[in-house]
Design a protein that fits this description.
The complex is a heterodimer of chains A (81) and B (376). Chain A is mainly beta. Helices cover 10% and strands 35% of the residues of chain A. Chain A has one helix at 22-29, and strands spanning 4-9, 12-17, 34-35, 41-42, 55-58, 61-65, 76-78. Chain A starts with a strand and ends with a strand. With 376 residues, chain B is α/β, with parallel strands linked by helices. Helices cover 32% and strands 30% of the residues of chain B. In chain B, 51% of the residues are buried.
């Protein structure tokens, strides 16, 4: 198992330790996960799949909880839907 | 409000009660509205908010068409939180048999001045690409709309209050009749006329009117903007909505302005508890996925139930109740209460003031239920 994997966050490559969640990649990329209805940037809060604040689109599937999904090489993570 | 007396006391602050209060106050009556909970609760909070012209019968068509025109006339005054959107309805035909129903509906609506468009399979696929392959077509009724009912009820009630109506919340109505509404806190509100707009609970206050509770389930999803653009209803809905004995489900989905998707629908008699029936909910969602497979992985955020006020002949009860003419009924709208609320208010106000209504009111008069009550 490689020590790191690389995912794409809004088109930019982010390398994270193997086994890290997508939420980790978002923090390392320094990006908010989504924008709230009132226009606020949102990111991981509970870290355990309850608060739904860390949703991102992964490989075209919207509303994935980034704290519950482990990074895989080549994943396409988007914060705009 | 103890010992207070009004021209009209309305029982129920759902959208029908709110619309009546607004219309009665506009015509100069003194009005009080009582509700055990809050404005826009009950079936108003539980319903989809589909403003739809229906054609089960001439009388149903007349009331829904009349009411839809009143909503259209009001739309510029509606605050944005009501989310009024003229998205249109598409009645989806799964096969050629249902396409013949599309053409029948098209002829029916066209003959009565309602714009509709027959969609073939390709046109339907183009404007609603998330429907499954192989649909036969559909009928687009472009003037149908959607709105958010609790805010619509609040808007109507606030306008009624500006026109002088009084609102009293928090005490349940325990008895009505002979010009008096008795509340659970021991007080009374008196009125020359009492309007029973208590929806599915109306029967408890005025026994014998023949209202039955017809339970429904709804699901709201997370935000998926653009997943669908029109309210989509299967034509098989008519078969399910007409089934009077068994539980039924139908594909009936609605796009919200937020990008959320409202998924229905179910119909159940004899289910008195509010709890979600997961077996029926599963059937309902399975039906939705048969029509829109892409709904499968979509994330739902809430599920709830509500009770429609159903009558044996599928028409509401609007007017005086013969055994006690101080009581007027405004209930029995089944799944069309949001649509029909504005027309209901006009028709009742016309009856109370002795004005001629703009549509024939005979089919809705409660005397038809009173006859059955007397023969029972």
């Amino acid at each position: 198992m490689p020590s790191h994997v690389t995912v794409m966050v809004n088109g930019l490559a982010v390398s994270v330790p193997s086994g890290a969640t997508v939420a980790v990649a978002m923090v390392m990329a320094g990006q908010a996960c989504r924008t709230s209805v009132t226009g606020e940037p949102r990111g991981p809060l509970c870290g355990m799949g309850v608060c739904f604040e860390c949703r991102v689109a992964i490989n075209g599937v919207p509303h994935c909880r980034s704290c519950q999904i482990v990074c895989e090489t080549g994943m396409d993570v988007r914060t705009d839907g | 409000m103890s010992d207070a007396s009004f021209d009209v006391v309305i029982v129920g602050a759902g959208i029908v009660g709110a619309a009546c209060a607004d219309e009665f106050a506009r015509r100069g009556m003194s009005v009080a509205v009582v509700d055990r909970e809050f404005v826009g609760g009950g079936a108003t909070a539980a319903g989809m908010g589909h403003i739809v012209v229906m054609d089960d019968s001439e009388a149903q068509f007349a009331l829904t068409k009349y009411s839809q025109q009143l909503w259209q006339a009001l739309r510029r005054e509606l605050p944005s939180d009501i989310e009024y959107e003229q998205c249109g309805t598409i009645w989806v035909a799964a096969d050629e048999e249902e396409m013949s129903e599309v053409r029948r509906k098209h002829d029916y609506y066209s003959a009565r001045g309602v714009p509709t468009e027959v969609l073939d399979a390709q046109s339907l696929k183009r404007i609603e690409p998330n429907l499954r392959e192989g649909m036969a077509g559909g009928l687009l009724v472009s003037e149908d709309a959607v709105l958010y009912p609790p805010c619509a009820a609040r808007f109507l009630m606030e306008r009624a209050e500006k026109r002088g109506a009084e609102l009293r919340l928090g005490a349940a109505v325990v008895q009505i009749g002979q010009g008096c509404v008795a509340l659970s806190d021991g007080s009374e509100v008196r009125g020359g006329i009492i309007v029973n707009a208590a929806g599915a609970d109306a029967d408890a206050l005025t026994p014998g009117i023949g209202i039955k509770k017809r339970k429904g389930h709804l699901v709201i999803t997370d935000r998926y903007p653009g997943f669908l653009r029109h309210q989509l209803v299967e034509l098989g809905y008519l078969k399910s909505a007409h089934a009077v004995t068994s539980d039924s489900v139908a594909f009936n989905v609605q796009p919200r302005q937020t990008g959320q998707i409202l998924i229905g629908s179910s119909r159940q008699y004899g289910a008195e508890h509010k709890e979600v029936d997961y077996a029926l909910l599963t059937r309902m969602l399975q039906r939705a996925r048969e029509y829109m497979p892409g709904l499968g992985p979509i994330s739902a955020v809430r599920t709830w139930t509500g009770f429609r006020a159903a009558t044996p002949d599928k028409l509401p009860l609007l007017g005086p109740w013969p055994p006690d003419p101080s009581i007027f009924l405004a209930t029995g709208h089944e799944g069309l209460g949001i649509t029909s609320s504005l027309g209901t208010a006009r028709i009742l106000a016309d009856q109370i003031t002795g004005s001629k209504a703009e549509i024939s009111i005979e089919p809705y008069l409660p005397s038809r239920a009173a006859k059955e009550h007397a023969h029972a």
